Amino acid sequence: MKVAILGSGAYGLSLAMMFNKNNIDVTIWTKFEEERKMLEKFHEHKISLKGVILPSNFKYTTNMKEAIEEAKLILITVPAGFVDDVSKELKSIIKKDQHVCIGSKGIEQDTCLFVTDVFKKYIKTNKLAIISGPSFAVDIAANVPIGLSLGTKNKETLNILKKTLQNDTLKLRSTTDILGIEICGSVKNIIAIASGILAGMNMPESTQAMFITESLNDIKNLIKALGGSKKTILSFAGFGDILLTCTSKKSRNFTFGYMIGSGLSKKEIDNYINNTTIEGLYTLKSIHKLLKNKKVEMPIIDLIYDIIFNNCDKNKLLTFLINKK
């Protein structure tokens, strides 16, 4: 069986290694010729997954049609902002019998659509799944135990993913609540920014725990308000990913928040933004707009938005936690 991975970043490459453990043929698509040459020459991504040697049998291409040809499963792992372009290109070449799994997280800025809805603008299929959970790419690649939530309403898609991706170090726990998984996967990056701000302000673990607990309750209520299942907050995609992303400097979102909290200069912060993919920063604008459109209240999102984009005093995070109902 063949799997095509659209996106050659750290997450896509680490998942490719999991497929490889199950003797699945893997072809990886990148938009950039220089990136393809680097991967073929060194069997390593010198920027996003430095130090991890990739299997020599991986195939790389900049031709999407070539990448997905004869693939039973297509995995999309590009950043959320590029899901639209990838889906648009995929529309004319995907076959009806091909299954799709989306590993991208976030909400499109202009439309406020979650990534599966962005995909469905162009491609109508019921062979669709989404994966999310507490998993730094370097940890997946290191073959330590990892758990991911797998959301799909298609039993065949579920079985294919479990057969090809699940192994002795990677567990998939399934659910039909695709929306709940997407909400968790998107909002947790924003919450991680605020958690990083608190850490940068030298707030202790006790305050961090308070903040994470309050955030879990808010996200649970948001899932319910938007039509998902509240219990998804307790999944790998929910509590698991929030716990990981909100407590580790490996998280780019947490690190970005930490820089703000510790008072680094605007120049230093802007340099980090320009050289790093910070999904939470992209998603913050989208979720803020979505909440306004849906008339759903989530004051923590409003406050984070004001701190990041309106120069609001970061110390308001502390008074917010105490005054929050």
What does this 3D model show about the protein?
- With 325 residues, the protein is α/β, with parallel strands linked by helices.
- The protein has two domains: 2-176, 3-Layer(aba) Sandwich (Rossmann fold); 179-323, N-(1-d-carboxylethyl)-l-norvaline Dehydrogenase, domain 2, CATH 1.10.1040.10.
- Helices cover 51% and strands 12% of the residues.
- It is built from 15 helices and eight strands.
- It has helices at 10-21, 33-42, 64-68, 83-90, 115-120, 137-141, 155-164, 178-200, 205-226, 236-245, 252-261, 266-275, 279-294, 299-309, 316-323, and strands at 2-6, 25-29, 59-61, 73-76, 99-102, 128-132, 146-152, 170-175.
- Strands 3-2-1-4-5-6-7-8 form an eight-stranded mixed beta sheet, with helices on both faces.
- Helix 2 (33-42) links the parallel strand 2 (25-29) and strand 3.
- The model has no long low-confidence stretch (mean pLDDT 95).
How is the secondary structure organized here?
Elements: E1 2-6, H1 10-21, E2 25-29, H2 33-42, E3 59-61, H3 64-68, E4 73-76, H4 83-90, E5 99-102, H5 115-120, E6 128-132, H6 137-141, E7 146-152, H7 155-164, E8 170-175, H8 178-200, H9 205-226, H10 236-245, H11 252-261, H12 266-275, H13 279-294, H14 299-309, H15 316-323
